[in-house]
Amino acid sequence: MDSNQKKHNLFLGLLAIIFVIVIVALIGFFVAKPEPLILQGEAEATEYRISGKLPGRIEHYLVEEGDHVKAGDTLVILDSPEIKAKLAQAQAAKAAAAAQSRKAIKGARSEQIMGAYEMWQKAKVGVDITKKSLDRVQSLFDKGVMPAQKRDEVEAQYNAAVATEKAAKSQYDMAVNGAQAEDKEAAQALVERAEGAIMEVESYMNEIYLKSPIDGEVANRFPKHGELVGTGAPIMTIVDMEDIWLTFNVREDLLQEMTMGSIIDVKVPALGEELYPAKIVNMKAMASYATWRTTKTNGQFDVKTFEIIARPEQPIANLRPGMSAIIERIEKEK
After folding, report:
1. Element (H, E) at 164
2. Which runs of E-coded beta strand occur in the chain?
3. Domain 48-78+207-235, what fold?
4. pLDDT tens figures, 60-93
5. Using CB atoms within 10 A of its CB, is residue 230 exposed (0-12), middle (13-18) or buried (19+)?
6. Does domain 33-46+238-327 match CATH 3.90.1720.10?
7. CA-to-CA dists, residue 303 to 19, 147, 259, 295, angstroms
8. Is the pTM of this model over 0.90?
């Protein structure tokens, strides 16, 4: 092998070694380069639970899951026979109380007044008759022909007739004058009490129509048509799509760039690669001990997890609760 051939082989070998060194250096560079740490969270929204004050059965749903509703829209109608029965009872009680009040205000009927008058006149006749009998017996007693016992008996009959006449006169006066003011007030109070009971039952009747408290979207419907629901049992949930925020669980050793009021850039994979600015509005330690991570093996400290809540600076189109949100700004620990 001549010298030229040897030089050529040596050159090729040197190129091969240089190539290997370059490849190893590139691999080492990319391996040693810190990777971005991805913090994943999700979008959440305010939810309103729709429930009723009354037990009953689902009579009719007026909306489906996914429907958009306005505040005040009727969502579901309940069937409550017990409340309907109570309303009928309250209305009957009011009718009876009203009749009693009319009777107290109007007073006795003309037939009752006439009957009381006739009884008074009868009693007056009785007084006249017994008075004449007493006068005759008293005259005979004065002449000594009538024993005292007989005179006393006739006198007692006269006194009884006088008392009967007074009682008949009182009954007649009562019939003419009607009920006393206290009786009229008591009767009116019964009417008002019955009206209050009706108003109470009617207020419960309004509770069979459950309405939306906000503008939002129907997220879930729980019981099916015809199923029985108890007082306060959830029937459906309404999501306020205008009140959406982002939640992240972040270890406290990664909070250096996160403070109250700071702005973070967030990516929502479901909506593409665009970054959305969001403001941190709340930071709180999570309560469970399971959120801790021990680092004492390398001489450091136990690390706890914080819940970070951030609100988008501007509404994010098509953002929905449950969508993932990612922060890539923080670098991984070396």
Report:
1. helix 148-177
2. 39-51, 56-61, 68-69, 74-79, 209-211, 216-221, 228-229, 234-251, 263-267, 275-285, 305-312, 324-327
3. OB fold (Dihydrolipoamide Acetyltransferase, E2P) (2.40.50)
4. 899 999 999 999 999 998 887 766 666 667 676 6
5. exposed
6. no
7. 45, 124, 17, 7
8. no
